[in-house]
Amino acid sequence: MSTVTIIGGSVLGLGAAIALADKGHQVEILERSADPQPSTVDDAFTAKRPTVPQGVQSHAFASLGCNLLRDRAKDVHDELLASGCTEVQLADYTPPTLGKVEPRPEDKDLRMVIARRSTFELALRKRAQARPNIRFSAGRTVRGLVTENGKVTGVRLEGGYTHPSDIVIDATGRRSAAETWLTDAGLPAPTTQSESCKITYYTRFYKLTAAAPPGPINRGFGAGGLWDHYTAVLFLGDNKTFSISFGILPDDTALKGLRNEEAFTAAVRATPLLAGWVAPGNSEPISPVHAMGSLDNSLRLPQPVQGFFGIGDSVCTTNPSYGRGVSLGLQHAYLLADMLDEHPEVGPKQAQAYVELTERLLRPWWEEAIINDRGRAAMWEATVAGQPPQRPPAGVVNFGIAVAASTKDEEVWRRVANVMMMLKTPDTLYQDPEIKARIGKALAGGPPPQLPGASRADLVDVVAKAS
Ligand SMILES: Cc1cc2nc3c(=O)[nH]c(=O)nc-3n(C[C@H](O)[C@H](O)[C@H](O)COP(=O)(O)OP(=O)(O)OC[C@H]3O[C@@H](n4cnc5c(N)ncnc54)[C@H](O)[C@@H]3O)c2cc1C
Questions:
Q1: Could you give all domains of the chain from N- to C-terminal order, each with its CATH number?
Q2: How far is 361 from 245, CA to CA, in rounded Å?
Q3: Is the shortest distance between the CB of 310 and ligand 1 below 6 Å?
Q4: Where do the coiled-coil regions begin and end (predicted)?
Q5: What whole-number distance in Å separates Cα of residue 166 and Cα of residue 416?
Q6: Residues paired with residue 4 on neighbouring β-strands, in sequence order
Q7: Ligand 1, pocket-test mutation among 11, 18, 54, most atoms within 8 A of CB
Q8: Which candidate, 247, 237, 158, 250, places its Cα nearest to that of 205?
Q9: Low-confidence residues of the chain, pLDDT below 50?
Q10: What pLDDT digit, counting tens, does each position of 298-336 carry?
Q11: Cβ(335)–Cβ(341) under 8 Å?
Q12: What is the C-alpha separation between 362 and 315, in angstroms, rounded?
């Protein structure tokens, strides 16, 4: 078994630590933040985490990641449920237009754990720290790599210390400095491909005070819709919390006022699907509005490097709307842990196996995110410019079209749900001739009615008046 150093102790550094420790490796996590680690759900929610700005944004956890924890780290799954998280089955939330849908045995895997990001990460950290072969060292910033004969053999820490290790894993997130570290060490750096998601998020958290959900739940994990100039989604959380996130174009100046709390509330009220959740007596805000932009679909494809592997956002980021980051990172971590069983020796075979599994896993999701974001951004840009919305050419299936068809055809619904939950790959939705034919047939009579959202004029007006 190897000694493993994981750089970065956030959600996926912790996930990777658990995956590797459970294979018998001796793991040390080096986390640059020296802030005290919260021990309760409430403290985790309010903890300041300047190095993890997305920690205060809405998160939904796709079935892929939830099932991995259920099947391979059951104690984490149990910890989540003991912390006030709940589970939902997506088959309980089929579109009403489908009528009664007979459940199938495989539907049981279409499930999600409902948790705030802070609660999810707390459960991972508690269970990581309970493992005798994981050490969590806070306040330790990595500045570079130590190498010997072309192999990475450790890390260089701030203050001039070095830390030897058989294997080094980069889990430092989307601002990873791995490219510089590798180049400085004379090793091949990843090839980076990146494109803006063209979306900025505004998120606020609430405590539910109503006895029952004050609005419809159309997505299992919450409720929401995508309209011709914005998206608004409600995410259920643990312990009677929920959050609402708006997504708009980064240069949509008319809606920038969403950062203002009054304007945010006015925009929720103007979105009929969500309005009831913020009606007096139904909820209380428990956070300010958090904005987050500069989001990219980025893929940093690694070159073979002996003893050094990246996981999580350090390798791939996709538009948060798709809710894939945590599941992809957990899957990557478990694939890496399994690969190390097959190739235990640090060397070229191990390095090459990592490169191959990384591209095989990540590329399809990254490519799908790019294509869908281009289509969605073009639609929003046209509306904001006062032009008619752009439609994809006839016969082209994109995510919006597939979702529309899923309200009319049970097989399409099941496939869309499986791809959204990452239990099937995107090609099974966009390339399967039978599914494509079903989508064409389902939409032959025209698209289904839109969910109730706010028109461009109304949303701009309420935000301007309340800002
Ligand atoms: C707005 C938004 C919403 C999202 N919603 C979802 C969602 O609904 N579902 C989902 O699955 N995913 C979602 N994601 C993606 C998800 O948040 C990320 O995939 C996930 O946070 C990545 O985790 P990570 O551990 O790779 O990196 P991070 O969480 O960014 O953590 C990196 C860690 O590395 C540490 N670090 C950095 N540099 C060093 C260093 N030199 N030395 C030591 N430590 C270092 C940092 O302090 C930090 O703790 C969302 C992302 C955004 C931006």
A1: 3-59+116-194+296-364 (3.50.50.60), 200-294 (3.30.9)
A2: 28
A3: no
A4: none
A5: 42
A6: 27, 167
A7: 54
A8: 237
A9: none
A10: 999 999 999 999 999 999 999 999 999 999 999 999 999
A11: no
A12: 9
